[in-house]
Amino acid sequence: METEIASELLPFCRIYKNGRVERLSGTEIIPPSPDATNDVVSKDVTYSPEHNLSVRLFLPHKSTCNNHHNSNNNNNNNKLPLLIYIHGGAWIIESPFSPIYHNYVAELVKSANCLAVSIQYRRAPEHPIPASYEDSWSAVQWIFSHADGSGPEEWINEYADFNRVFIGGDSAGANMSHHMAMRAGQEKLNPRIKGVAIVHPAFWGTDPVDEHDVQDVEMRRGIAEVWEKIASPNSVNGTDDPLFNVVGSDSDFSGLGCDKVLVAVAGKDVFVRQGLGYAEKLRKSGWGGDVEVVVEEEEGHVFHLQNPSSENALRFLERFVEFITGSGTDVL
C-alpha cells in the first residue's frame, strides 16, 4: 500500500498520496445498548440510506417501563424533552458512536430524563464542508418528520415532545448547532425549537474578535490550516467563510429560530473570546430570546468531555440539564 504522506494535521489525521485518510483519534466505536446501561437504552437508526448515515437514539429506561403500566406522571403521557446532539471533532474525527459521545449523551439523557438523537454526519477530508451541515439539516428534518407522531421511528413518535426540542453540540458541533437554528428560523421549522446549547463553539476568523482574542500568529495559522486545508478547502474566503466566521462576519442573528440559547465557554480555551463575542452579538442582534452564558475560567476546550467526573464538569452537566428541563433560572 502507498505509504507516502501527502499531508499531516496533528492530532486529527494523516492523508496519504493515494488518497487514504488515517484518523489519529476519535475512531473507537461502541455499540448501542438495547439493555439498560446506566438506566439508559440506546439504538442506531438509519436516517440517510443514500449516504449510509445513522442517528443514535437514547431513551431513559424508566420510560420504556412506564409504557407497560401507567405511571402517575404529570403529563398523563410519556412525552419527554427531545435533545438533538451534534458531536464535535473539528469536522474530521469522532462520531455519535465514540465512547466519549455515547457516554456523555447517555448521561445527559439520564440526568434530564429526555430523549436524545445524536447525529452522524459525513466528515472531512473525504467529504469537505458543507457536507456535514447538509447532513445535520437532513437529520433535523428527518427528526421533525415525526412531529405528528407518524414518522418512521417509534421512539420519536412515542416519546418526543416537539414543544420541547433542543439542539446542542460542542466545538464544531456547537458551530453547526448555531447554523441549524439559523436555518430553522429561515425555513420556519415547525414546531419551533425551544433552545440551543452552544458549548465551546468553534467560531473563528482571519482577525481576532477583540484585544483578548488569540494574537499568536502561529496559533491562528494552525487553526486556519485545519479549516482551509482539511475541513473546508472549498471555502472562497478561507477562515472568513460565514460558516466559520460567525462572530466577525456581518451575518444577521435576528432570525435565529429558537427561544433561548445557552452559551458555554472555558477560560483556557482558544475559542473563549469567540464564544463570548457570539453571546454579545446575539444579545444586540434584535433576536428576542434569552441568552444564558456559562463561563468556567480555569478549564480548557471540551473539558467536560475529557474529564466528565470532575467537579466542574458535573456542575456544567447540571446547567445543561436545567437548560433542557426548564428548572433553574428559566421560568415556565
Automatic annotation (TrEMBL):
All copies of domain Alpha/beta hydrolase fold-3, residue ranges: 83-304
Residues passing through the membrane, by range: none
One family name in Pfam for this protein: Abhydrolase_3
Family annotation (PANTHER family): ALPHA_BETA HYDROLASE FOLD-3 DOMAIN-CONTAINING PROTEIN, ARYLACETAMIDE DEACETYLASE
Family recorded in the similarity comment: Belongs to the 'GDXG' lipolytic enzyme family.
Record's protein name: Alpha/beta hydrolase fold-3 domain-containing protein
